[in-house]
Write a sequence for this structure.
């Protein structure tokens, strides 16, 4: 990539123009490109890198310098509890979104492009709806006497809702994160050559065998990476567990918010945020190694 | 679990050929569907329908609740009325919050668009090793857990006495919009032939003039799509604002959060409907722009 652009545009963007004729109309360019990259970098350094860096620093300086916060966090049972709940919730949501998302992605990849485009809209619209609004909606749906409890009443025998329980959080988070696996897996399925499973069948494999031995293996990378992506995003969830879950669903993000709002313990909040950032970045790097995640900004 | 048991074996049929909508007819050149296959295909259709219902119902519920005539959230609705819209519009607290959200989102989108577009052009024209880290820096707000950003901005705002100042909130939000603008404009720049810029410059135009008259117009739709996303992100952001709002920057999302916590009324559903309407409306607008651009390109 770099080599190619260097060759084709050497006179225009190289540091030293090869001759004076090429230089005159183009001498502005290197300076312009540097500025076009430099100004955004300076902007991000001030309003993004600085605040995040200051926050990271607080984990070892607030209230006094040293790793006291980290040892405090490591010996705090509530922190371990929150980490375990966060990981468990994210894992459950990741598995559910992939299980529900794969059939939809498969259907979208197989149906006519026109219908797929319309149905994809039904996937993307919830994606662009505020997480807060969707959590609020699940409060209505899952509350006592809500729609879900009414549907389940013949089976459970009472009209008690699921609200403020782990299942409530899992359901709401699954709803919020489901678009990711659908769109990512569909992107991969779109590229699988439809003649491959057909070839398998004409060679004597049954439909199920052709699917599991030929089609599915090609989709596995997308399935795994989208599951991991959902897991990583789920780790940082705050609004949904805070609104739909009860005290037992205190995820790491909820604990972070509480240490600031209830305990005024900046050091602990910064420490847990640092941990979360390190964990999420490491997992994100792994996911990106596995696949390039695109397609949510423009379908 | 049961979902995948039904759907996964159901999926091979379509791989075998015919679309799920027309199970009985085996199409030319493809293997005829067995009875089991047809059953599985209907099962797939059933699962997909249920998942789509799961995705869409919570959104529809919020909109329906906003027209509820009862003073409490109930489903099915007690009756239809616009009472809660009137209540919403008569309450300066809600109206001011909505206007503030719009103001913040506009400023945030403007900043994100300028920064993201400049950086995208710089990255497309630059050669050398700095590109990777610069892209990673500008892209990273998309993957950083939002609670980590919230802590960073809360600490920084508190340290510098910026809590409650809406322009500063908008600047913080613009950081989250930058990756969307960057990705959108970068992908458009990949389609854009840099030789057009060189041609204009050879013909005597200076670089600023070239960028303004040649480059920017052909990127217009990608830039506006990115700007719309940045606006939507800022308009319904609901985590950072919980910490940095103070008394003077209560946005619509923040007020919605407070109300969800303290009083669940259908007025909330009105606020939710406005959030849905703005975000979905803008998303559809960006899709429309994209469709028009695609048509024009095909011509």
């Amino acid at each position: 990539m770099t080599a190619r652009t260097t060759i084709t545009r050497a006179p225009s963007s190289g540091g030293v123009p090869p001759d004076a004729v090429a230089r005159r109309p183009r001498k502005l360019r290197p300076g312009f490109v540097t500025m076009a990259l430099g100004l955004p970098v300076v902007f991000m350094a001030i309003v993004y890198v600085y605040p995040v860096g200051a926050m990271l620093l607080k984990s070892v300086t607030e209230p006094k310098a040293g790793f006291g916060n980290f040892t405090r966090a490591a010996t705090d049972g509530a922190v371990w509890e929150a980490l375990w709940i966060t990981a468990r919730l994210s894992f459950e949501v990741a598995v559910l979104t992939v299980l529900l998302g794969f059939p939809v992605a498969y259907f979208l990849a197989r149906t006519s492009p026109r219908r797929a485009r319309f149905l994809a809209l039904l996937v993307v619209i919830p994606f662009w709806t505020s997480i807060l609004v969707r959590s609020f909606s699940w409060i209505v749906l899952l509350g006592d006497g809500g729609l879900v409890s009414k549907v389940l009443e013949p089976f459970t025998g009472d009209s008690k809702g699921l609200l403020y329980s782990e299942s409530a959080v899992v359901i709401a988070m699954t709803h919020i994160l489901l678009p990711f696996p659908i769109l990512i897996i569909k992107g991969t399925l779109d590229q699988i050559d439809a003649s491959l499973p057909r070839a398998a069948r004409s060679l004597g494999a049954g439909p199920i065998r052709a699917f599991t031995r030929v089609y599915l293996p090609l989709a596995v990378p997308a399935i795994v990476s989208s599951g991991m992506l959902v897991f990583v995003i789920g780790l940082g969830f705050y609004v949904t567990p805070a609104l739909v879950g009860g005290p037992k669903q205190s995820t790491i993000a909820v604990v972070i918010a509480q240490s600031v709002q209830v305990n005024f313990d900046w050091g602990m909040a910064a420490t847990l945020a640092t941990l979360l950032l390190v964990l999420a970045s490491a997992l994100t790097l792994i996911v990106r190694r596995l696949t390039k995640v695109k397609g949510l900004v423009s379908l | 679990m049961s979902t995948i048991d039904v759907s996964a074996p159901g999926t091979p049929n379509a791989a075998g050929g015919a679309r799920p909508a027309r199970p009985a007819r085996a199409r030319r050149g493809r293997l005829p569907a067995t009875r089991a296959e047809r059953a599985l295909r209907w099962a797939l259709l059933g699962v997909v329908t249920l998942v789509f219902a799961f995705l869409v119902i919570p959104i529809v519920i919020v909109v329906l609740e906003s027209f509820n005539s009862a003073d409490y959230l109930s489903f099915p609705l007690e009756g239809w009325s616009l009472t809660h819209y009137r209540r919403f519009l008569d309450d300066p607290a809600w109206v001011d919050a909505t206007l503030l959200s719009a103001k913040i989102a506009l400023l945030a989108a403007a900043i994100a668009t300028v920064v993201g577009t400049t950086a995208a052009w710089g990255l497309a024209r630059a050669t050398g090793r700095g590109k990777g880290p610069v892209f990673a820096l500008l892209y990273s707000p998309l993957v950083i857990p939002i609670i980590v950003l919230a802590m960073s901005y809360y600490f920084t705002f508190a340290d510098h006495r910026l809590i409650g100042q809406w322009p500063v909130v908008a600047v913080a939000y613009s950081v989250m919009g930058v990756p969307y603008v960057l990705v959108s404009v970068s992908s458009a720049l990949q389609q854009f032939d840099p030789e057009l810029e060189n041609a204009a410059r050879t013909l005597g135009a200076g670089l600023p003039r070239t960028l303004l008259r040649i480059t920017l117009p052909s990127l217009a739709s990608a830039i506006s799509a990115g700007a719309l996303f940045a606006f939507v992100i800022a308009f319904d952001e609901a985590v950072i604002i919980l910490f940095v709002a103070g008394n003077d920057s209560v946005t619509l999302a923040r007020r919605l959060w407070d109300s969800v916590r303290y009083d669940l009324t259908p007025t909330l559903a009105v606020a939710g409907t406005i959030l849905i309407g703005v975000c979905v409306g803008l998303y559809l607008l960006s899709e429309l722009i994209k469709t028009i651009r695609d048509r024009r390109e095909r011509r």
Observations:
- Chain A has two domains: 2-61, 78-290.
